[in-house]
Amino acid sequence: LDAADPQKTGTTMTNAKLLYALVARGTVVLAESTIGANGNVALVALRILEKIGDVGDMRVSYAQDRHMFHVLAADGVIYLVMAEEATGRQVPFAFLEDLRNRFSATYGQASEAVAYEYNTEFAPIITQRMTFFMTDPSADSITRVKGQLVEVKDIMIENIEKVLERGEKLDLLVDKTDNLQETAFTFRREARRLQRTLWWRNKKLMIGVIGSVLLLIYVLLALSCGVTLRNC
Asked: Which pTM was predicted?
């Protein structure tokens, strides 16, 4: 378990990439939203929720290749956001604090809520706030203010492998992997189509050759035996 590098705690709006976020109570997801994150992101997030369990207030980040899962737990509610590593930690945690304030002001501790109960109402807010913290210049001032309240350089970072059981493997599959899989699928499909085309071409060529040979034999026999071949 290592402390975050202070040089990586901040970022500019143009570099901020918040891809997926959720609000949960324990392992029960109450609302979630994604901006450009495909693959098994939700599954990895669920495993993090399972590992965290019923904890008190905490702030922690989990590293996975070039992505980070940042977690803020407060008053029994867990707020999670996945971001590109280059985003740093100041923007994600400022976003989580903002999300926490908005959610708690509307729903409180949501102790009786069921899965996705607030998704219709709150998912658009999650999306809007992610977009705001990534693109709006005024988000810089909010980030700086909240950064003074939360010393992000002291937030601990764990590798996401520690979230999993020993010997278990769960890779984060995001856009790049999805694109590679789609490319591989297209390649295999085109290869099969080309293989079928070549097979039919060879069959047609073989049928043509056999037909030509039979026709030649018939012509030679017809010259000797007549058209009906009765004289052979």
From this structure: 0.61
